[in-house]
């Protein structure tokens, strides 16, 4: 099997509604509604749903998934980072200066440490905890040959 090398990865999760409330493995979880959904409802913050979350790392250049995990909706995205990054490392080799794009759910010290150990540059939105304001990454995410 030919080994693929990648430079830019993206990680996120998406909700999968359960078919029925009789599904005993599914749980209630939170999600942030889209802008369109927020305009249609009074609750601007969060919405509950019953089901699962699909956690995926993709090669952002080819848009192909390289590692996945599925879990009940009540589990936080951060909990699955280590397991799917290990799957990713087993499948794909990293080019120098590889980057990982992620939303604020992955803004955690242990994630930064793991990425640093693997030689991957984190491009993660800042979570607005305590005195910090939420923000999007300031790093350019464009990847060119030779970078």
Structure, explained:
The structure is a single chain. By secondary structure, the protein is α/β, with parallel strands linked by helices. It has a domain at 4-94. The protein is built from three helices and six strands. Strands 1, 2, 3, 4, 5 and 6 form a six-stranded mixed beta sheet that branches. Strand 5 (92-102), helix 3 (109-118) and strand 6 form a beta-alpha-beta unit. The protein is globular, with a radius of gyration of 17 Å. The model is unreliable at 141-147 (pLDDT under 50).
Question: Short summary of the structure?
Answer:
By secondary structure, the chain is an alpha/beta fold. It is 18% helix and 38% strand.
Shape: globular
Helix and strand content put the structural class at alpha/beta
Average pLDDT confidence is 79
Terminal Cα separation, in Å? 26 Å
How many beta-strand elements? 6
User: Main beta sheet: strand number and arrangement?
Assistant: 6 strands, mixed
Rg: 17 Å
Count of alpha/pi helices = 3
SSE order in H/E notation? EEHEEHEHE
Residue windows where pLDDT falls under 50 for at least 5 positions: 141-147
DSSP strand content: 35-45%
